[in-house]
Every structure is written in C-alpha cells, then in structure tokens.
Design a protein that fits this description.
Helix 2 links the parallel strand 1 and strand 2. This protein is an alpha/beta fold. It is elongated. Helix 7 packs across helix 8 and helix 11 packs antiparallel against helix 12. It has 15 helices and eleven strands. Helix content is about 45%, strand content about 15%. It folds into two domains: about 230 residues, BirA Bifunctional Protein, domain 2, CATH 3.30.930.10; about 230 residues, no CATH class. The structure holds adenosine-5'-triphosphate (ATP) and magnesium ion (3 copies). One magnesium ion (MG) binds next to loops. It is found in: Plastid, Chloroplast; Mitochondrion. Its EC number is 6.1.1.7. Catalyzes the attachment of alanine to tRNA(Ala) in a two-step reaction: alanine is first activated by ATP to form Ala-AMP and then transferred to the acceptor end of tRNA(Ala). Also edits incorrectly charged tRNA(Ala) via its editing domain.
C-alpha cells in the first residue's frame, strides 16, 4: 500500500471508523480551554467529556489533530523525531471500551494495517500496571523481554498540571533489533522511536495533586503521523518524509545548498526551517498573530528563529519584488500547498498568512539591521581601546549577549563578523549571561505555569517581556508533554 503521509493518516481513520469510531475534524491549535496555551494533544477537545462536564455525543471517536509543542523546540532537528508542529492520530473511548480493546486494536493497526514486523515492536507499561502487562504478554503474545515497566515520567500521562490523566502504554519501533536485549534504553533515539501512546484515562488530577477516579474509564491515544511516515518511508528522520521534505527542498533552493550534501549545521538549520514554517503557518491560520503576549509571542519567536536560521543558511530573500527581500512567504507557500489534507481552511487564508509573515519578517530584519549598526560601533570601540591599552581586541560577553537577546543576533554571526575585524569574543562572559537568563526564564516558566492554572484568562495576559532569548521559547509556553 502507499506509504505517503496522506494515506497513513487515512488508513488510521478508516481503521477505527470500521470499528465504530466517528471520524471527527481536528480542533483549532487555540484550545477552548483557558488552562492550556496551545493544543498539545488530540484529547484536548474531549477534555470536558472525560471530566464528565459535557455529555458525550458518540461513544467512540477518531481524529487527526494538529498539535503544537513548544517544549520540544530545543529538540527540533537535534532528535530525529520531535517537531513543534505535528499531527497526532488518535482513537478515543468515552466510557466505552478500555484497555483490552485499545491494546488489541493498536497492535492490529501496527502489525496488520501498517505491516510492522512484530519482532521489532517494544512495549512500555506503567510500573505497576500488571493488567496491561498481562494483556500484552498473554493475549497479544509479546515476549516479556520486550515489555518494559517504566515510571511516572514516561508512563503516566497528564494533559497539564491538573486534569484527566492515567497510566499509559506505549509502542516503540526498533531500528536495530540486532542490538539485542541487554542494556536497552527505549529513549535511545538512534535505536528506537516511540510512535503510539495509549492512555488509560481514569483519573482527574486535582489542584493538590491527588488523583480522583473519573466516573467512567476512557481511552485516549496518540500516534505521531510524521513518526509513522518516517518508519514506513524508511528515511533516517521525520524531516525526510513527504510531509516535511518539500519544505526543506524549497528552503535549500533559496539557500542554494543541497540537503543531500550539506554539512551537519546546514542540515540542522534546514530542518529547523522545515519545522518552524509549518508551525507558523498553521498558527497564523488558526488566528494567532505575532505579538508580545501569550500565543502571539510563541509565533513571533518561531518567526524570528526561522528568519535567523535562514540567514545562517545564507538565504538573502528570494528576489521577488513583491516580497521586498523577505523569504518566509515563499517557503510558506510550499507549506500551504501541502496543507490541503491536513487542514482544508489554510489555503483560503493564504493571502492573509503571507501578508502577515512578510510584515513580521521585514520588521524583524530592521531590528537585525539596528543590531548590525550597534555591532559595528562596539567593534570600533573594542579596537580603539585595545590600541590604547596595548591589549588584544575583545568584545565583552555582555555586548554579545545583548546582540543575541535583544537584536536577535546568533552568537555565531557576531563571532564571524568580529573575527573579520580581528576582534575576539569573550565567550565565557557570553555563556555566563546566557546561564543567568536561563535561570531567570526557568523561574518565569514556573510562575507562568502555576498562574495560568489558577487564573482563567491569564493566558491572554502573560506579561510583555520582550525577548527572553531564542533558546527559552518554552518559557512562554505553558505546555507539558
Ligand atoms: P517523546 O517521548 O518522543 O517526546 P512523548 O511521550 O512526549 O514523546 P506523547 O505525549 O506520548 O509523546 O504523545 C503521543 C505521540 O505523539 C507520541 O507517541 C509521538 O508519536 C507523537 N509526538 C509527541 N511529541 C511529538 C513531537 N514533538 N513531534 C512529533 N511527534 C510527537
Ligand atoms: Mg515518551
Ligand atoms: Mg509518550
Ligand atoms: Mg515528549
């Protein structure tokens, strides 16, 4: 059968439809839920049903949900499997079937429908979930060596600090079965990939952390479409699947590099663009416009990251007069072209998306240019004072950090420009500033997380802190995986 992303999605939905699940549309990336900034999983639109606050419309449903996980932004391109934007395929039971059926169907889907060899599949279960262990072993026939018991962090799923939750069981694919059964680490990205998580949703986690049993037992699952595509298309990472690679190709064309022969840095940068452009387009399409607060800040940060990454790749705009030197819109056009099977509304919103992107990119480029002027000035000063003191010209870590943090200057670019003028950079000082900021944003993260949980419209009010630095995007985003 075809292993295109589109057909993998369709086969999942059809598989569960033929087992009495109603196919429902993806909900917006902006959840109808004040405690979460962005949609991080397929279950979010069903949360009121799980909690018994809304009546179920159907006993079983299946979806392909657009998701954003800003907490994975650091992983983008560095692991083979994480994106900020991805599609989560899910099957749901609202007080209908439970563990046994969920496990049986997940196995059947994986081995029969998608044809994965059983001997390559590994299972994780929550440490004290003997029931799930037994079903996998006795009823499905997975040997005990390939069923691992894991702790809360991996195998107890919660949608947030509070809310519906429960023990879960995951299916992993083994790329190197020849590595055998000793020293197995399911988190080893070079050997395994987690692709399907089955959550046995039976508790509500309360403010005080206690677990209250839900009235009914539910099933909530998530299978990463890009991950399944990566397995079935036999490519080394999610980025090289048909869901993302065309975007990378467009970016590499603009950068005049070839992905196949690019060095590791360039490959990483191309992956970052491939990832971020999808997140940006789908966020704007769902009404999230760049700003300095809440969700708008997430999209602004992603855009800035994409711009600076493009510059690192040497992209200088795409030469089209209508774009005035911007390049994000032409990559976004590719994302929009690929969007029709994921979200039929994106195409109709294309003009607005492209306009917004162009404006935001050009605005950021101006900031970058102001930074260039500042850098020029600082380099001249460093040279002068070195001459006066007879010392080696050096730019302070503080200045390098200011350029990075406020003007969006990657330190690699600052270093390069400085070196051209014979000035070195106090990298030690830079690292110290960076570390200080990390600590601060970590503290901010905790505050934001707690307050958003307790204040229904705080997500909209999250303070106007300009630029916490590129690497602390998650400080602004109240999500947990
Ligand atoms: P991982 O351990 O790989 O970070 P996870 O345990 O955080 O994944 P879950 O919360 O269980 O992921 O989400 C369900 C499924 O969604 C995962 O099994 C995976 O297939 C997919 N998924 C989760 N996070 C991402 C991501 N950042 N990018 C792409 N797919 C993802
Ligand atoms: Mg996991
Ligand atoms: Mg998981
Ligand atoms: Mg994760």
């Amino acid at each position: 059968f075809s292993v295109s992303g589109d057909s993998i999605r369709q086969r999942f939905l059809d598989f569960y439809a033929s087992r009495s699940h109603k196919i429902l549309p993806s909900s917006s990336l902006v959840p109808d839920d004040p405690t979460v900034l962005l949609t991080i999983a397929g279950m979010l639109q069903f949360k009121p049903i799980f909690l018994g606050k809304a009546p179920r419309q159907v006993p079983r449903a299946t979806t392909s949900q657009k998701c954003i996980r800003t907490n994975d932004v650091e992983n983008v391109g560095r692991t083979s499997r994480h994106h900020t934007f991805f599609e989560m395929l899910g099957n749901f039971s609202f007080g209908d079937y439970f563990k046994k059926e969920a496990i049986k169907w997940a196995w059947e889907l994986s081995t029969k429908e998608y044809g994965l060899p059983a001997r390559r599949l590994w299972i994780s279960v929550y440490e004290d979930d003997d029931e799930a262990f037994e079903i996998w072993n006795k009823e499905i026939g997975v040997p005990v060596e390939r069923i691992l018991r894991m702790g809360e962090e991996d195998n107890f799923w919660t949608s947030g600090v509070t809310g519906p939750c429960g023990p879960c069981s995951e299916i992993y694919y083994d790329f190197c079965p020849e590595r055998g059964y000793s020293d197995v680490d399911l988190g080893d990205d070079t050997r395994f990939i987690e692709f399907y998580n089955l959550v046995f949703m039976q508790y509500n986690k309360k403010d005080d952390g206690s677990l209250e049993p839900l009235k009914q037992k539910n099933i909530d699952t998530g299978l990463g479409l890009e991950r399944m595509a990566r397995i079935l298309q036999k490519v080394p990472n999610n980025y090289e699947t048909d869901l993302i690679y065309p975007i990378i190709e467009k970016a590499s064309e603009l950068a005049n590099v070839s992905y196949a022969t690019a060095d590791d840095d360039a490959k990483l940068n191309l992956k970052i663009i491939g990832d971020h452009m999808r997140a940006i387009v789908y966020l704007i399409s769902d009404g999230v416009f760049p700003s300095n607060i809440g969700r708008g800040y997430v999209v602004r940060r992603l855009i800035r990251r994409a711009v600076r990454t493009g510059r690192l790749l040497g992209i200088k705009g795409d030469g089209r007069g209508d774009l005035e030197g911007a390049f994000l819109p032409s990559i976004a056009e590719k994302v929009i072209e690929l969007s029709t099977h994921i979200d039929s509304e994106v195409k109709g919103k294309a003009p607005r998306i492209l306009e917004e992107l162009k404006r935001e990119e050009l605005r950021f480029v101006q900031t970058l240019e102001r930074g260039e002027k500042l850098l020029d000035q600082m380099l001249a000063e460093a040279l002068l004072s070195a001459q006066e003191n007879g010392s080696v010209p050096c730019l302070s870590g503080k200045v390098a950090f200011l350029l990075y943090d406020t003007y969006g200057f990657p330190v690699e670019i600052t270093t390069e420009v400085a070196e051209e003028r014979g000035v070195s950079i106090d990298m030690n000082g830079f690292d110290i500033e960076m570390e200080n900021q990390r600590r601060q944003s970590q503290a901010a993260h905790n505050v934001v997380k707690l307050s958003v949980e307790n204040d229904s419209d705080l997500a909209e009010k999250i303070t106007d802190t300009e630029f916490l630095g590129y690497d602390s995007l998650s400080a602004k985003a109240v999500v947990e995986s």
